[in-house]
Amino acid sequence: VPSDLGFVDALHGWMMLHVGAGMMHDYFAIFTTSDGGITWQKVLDPSTGQAIMSCQKSGLAFTTTMNAWLSGNCPGLMPSLFLYRSTDGGMNWDEINLPVPEGKPAEYYSQKNIACGIGGINFATARSLVLTLTCSDLNSRTAFSWLYASTDGGLTWNDHLLPLPYNDRISLLRTDE
């Protein structure tokens, strides 16, 4: 099932295909093109054995022909966030650690009662990246969302608390208990 398709210019593009799921994994393949989509080359598939096959994928964005970002949403299933970057056209991926939101403890992402996930990549260029992060406190049943932005290709990040959890329609309908 294709989920992400994009082009950085008239010739160079990418596509992510989900090829299976199970046991908290979302197996996928990435294909790229350098001739406007006439032919496609597979650059990644589940046989690579990389850790990025875990969790539900929420976004893939190539910002140049070689640089790409992959986000995922697996709240509470891993002690960190699912955010990866490739600098070789999608063949290999390195985990990116976002800073903990302002006012939260350093171990916030690894607390057992906190479930965080990246809902998607909202905007991506060669230098700028914007994404949303939502964390739920499983004990108090509260949720918070932040907009994370980088203007230096992901080297540094600024977080901004959103007024309501991103895409949380239930919170709009909820009344005080």
Helix and strand topology:
Layout: E1 2-7, E2 13-22, E3 25-33, E4 41-44, E5 56-62, E6 68-73, E7 83-86, E8 94-95, E9 114-124, E10 129-137, E11 142-150, E12 158-161, H1 169-173
Antiparallel strand pairs: 1-2, 2-3, 3-4, 5-6, 6-7, 7-8, 9-10, 10-11, 11-12
Structure notes:
There is one protein chain. The protein is 3% helix and 46% strand. It has a four-stranded antiparallel sheet with strand order 1-2-3-4, with no helix packed on it. Strands 5-6-7-8 form a four-stranded antiparallel sheet, with no helix packed on it. The chain has one helix spanning 169-173, and strands spanning 2-7, 13-22, 25-33, 41-44, 56-62, 68-73, 83-86, 94-95, 114-124, 129-137, 142-150, 158-161. By secondary structure, the protein is mainly beta. The chain has one helix and twelve strands, in the order ββββββββββββα. The longest helix is centred in the C-terminal third of the chain and has 5 residues, at 169-173. The protein is globular. A hairpin with a 7-residue loop joins strand 3 and strand 4 (41-44).
